[in-house]
Structure formats: C-alpha cells, structure tokens
Amino acid sequence: MILLAALAAPVAAVPARADMPFLVQSGPLTFAPLVKKVVPAVVNIAVTQDVEDDDTRVKVPPALRGTPFEKQFRERMRSRKEQMLGAGSGFVIDPSGIIVTNNHVVGQADKITVSFSDGTELPAKLLGSDDLTDIAVIQVKTDHPLPFVTWGRSQDVQIGDWILAAGNPFGLGSSVTAGIVSARGRDIGAGPFDDFLQLDAPINPGNSGGPSFDMRGQVVALNTAIVSPTGGSVGIGFGIPSELVAPIVDQLRTKGHIDRGWLGVTLENAPGGVSIVSVDKGGPGQRAGLHAGDLVTSVNGEHVDSNRGLIRTVAAAAPGSTIRLALQRKGKPVDVLVVVGRRTEGPS
C-alpha cells in the first residue's frame, strides 16, 4: 500500500523547452493508400509434390495448422495425388510475370501454384534459385500485364523507419502488417552472406518470400525468417535487404544460377580490417601472393571492416575478374591484384 501511494504521488510538471524541436512529428494516419498500391503485386504460393500412393496421409504445412483453412486443405488434398510441401509468399517485379520468393518456399516442388489478390490462380515454373542466400525466382504465363512493384534503396533505410510487410501468414492471404526497422546487419547464422534487416512488423509462417515496403511503396526487404519460441510472431523478423536481393534476382532471371567470386583464404575480424588466417594451396589468394597474417583494409578502394563484408564483396565479383586488395603486411602497406576464382558449395 505504501508503494502504491508513493507511485500515485503528484509529480511536478517539467516545462517544455522552446529551443528543443520535436524529433518525431507524427506517424501515418493510415497505410491504406500504400496497401492499395502494393497488395495487387503480392502473391500467395502453394507448393506440391506428386505422390503415387493413394493412401498417403495428408500432411498439413505448418503455415495452415490450427487455422480455419486446415479442414478445407485436407479435403482438397485427399482428392488429389499430390502432397503439400509448403505455403509462402512472393511479389511480382515484372509485368510479364516474374516473381521473387524464398528458395525454402519453392524447394524441390513438382508443382508451384501462384494465387493473386483478385482470386486468380496460375501455375509457375522455377527460373532459378540460390541456396546460400535463400532467394528464388519463378515465372507465371499471363496474357495481360500484371501489377508489379519496384526495388527501393535498402541502404537508405534507417533504424526506426516505418515498414509495411505483406504476404500469406498462416494461409490467410493478402495480409499486411506494419512496424519499424529494429536493427541492421543482423547475422542469424543462416548463411555466409547474412546481412538482415531486423523488423518488428508481425511476420509469421507463410510470410516467407513476401516483401517489406518503405513508405514510398518500394521493396526494401525480402521477408525470410523469424525468431520465435511459440512458432508465431514475437516481433523479431528478418528480411534480406533489397540491395542484396536485386542483383541476385537479375542473375537468376538470366542464368538460373549464381556465379560467385572466391579468394581461397580463411578470414577473421581484426582491428583495422580483416586478417588472413590461412591461404588455400593452389587457390587464387596463393597465386596472387597473399600470406597468412596479412591484414586486408580495403577492396578496390572500399574500406572493409568485417570478414562478412569482405566475403560478400569478393562473392559479388565475377569469377575471372581482377580486384585490388590494400593490405598491411608486417606494418607496411602493400597493394595486391587478385584474379578472382569461382566459388563452389561449401564453407570456404
């Protein structure tokens, strides 16, 4: 009782200072104009696999379990010789029918079905996918131009900026949520190129592959993962920044796969740059004269301050191209030209 009384005691008002401007004026009164602009380009993706056994039990994807759609899904799938592998989201980036999603959404599907907000369903084919970044590109055929969205500049996104996420949470379809960017540059152990935006807009199973928009209606992130002890949103979601997604999508559209650069060295973070721990025998680094103990400070004049940043920069270089590394070797500056090799699957 004494504590409650103390808490209820009046507090003297602090006078406002006229020389201190408001840092936040107001939030948006409504997201409705933004939603109307972008939602027609956001799609739901269903992935199935053919089965031969008529008695195969229907497996419900996690995104539909416990939802009103679970019973409908079971009845629908029992009449077909196919098994649902998953459900997710995607977004159209070209009116001809090019759609971006996550690789883990489309997986090893025999059949991909895309549903639009107007109820239209179209079959899709996989144009290309990339395991290391969890990005995939699919395509539908259509006799008319489709609504589409454009890439925004994720490098301009600041912590605290508004964000709008759209997708297919728990199979509900055409759902949007809003929040802010909570952090940048998150490494969640998903792969060697982790550089996620952390979002607090509610993202749930089924949102994977969907877009997050800035307030201009441009895509600044590809929603990919959540951290949750319950399986649902607890306000910690992760999206791949558009500056990383867009160039990979361009390669997948044209070639169906990603060619990545490789140095053939083992790296670790160090004060002032990135230290080379070891050099692979016969690799590009050894051929260029790199040594264990070298401290890499920049690539092609751009400063590097982490091993992840250096790996991403080298990976973005075309195999066979030449890059210039600025080093500190035994306290002396050294410039080394390296002909980049081709990265294969694996941790190196």
UniProtKB/TrEMBL annotation:
It comes from the Bacteria. Residues 1-18 form the signal peptide. SUPFAM superfamilies: PDZ domain-like (SSF50156), Trypsin-like serine proteases (SSF50494). The keyword Transferase does not apply. The keyword Hydrolase applies. Residues 259-306 form the PDZ domain. InterPro entries: Chloro_Bact_Ser_Proteases, PDZ, PDZ_sf, Peptidase_S1_PA, Peptidase_S1C. Keywords: Hydrolase, Protease, Signal. Gene3D superfamilies: 2.30.42.10, 2.40.10.120. Pfam families: PDZ_2 (PF13180), Trypsin_2 (PF13365). PANTHER family: PEPTIDASE S12, PROTEASE DO-LIKE 8, CHLOROPLASTIC. This is Trypsin-like peptidase domain-containing protein.
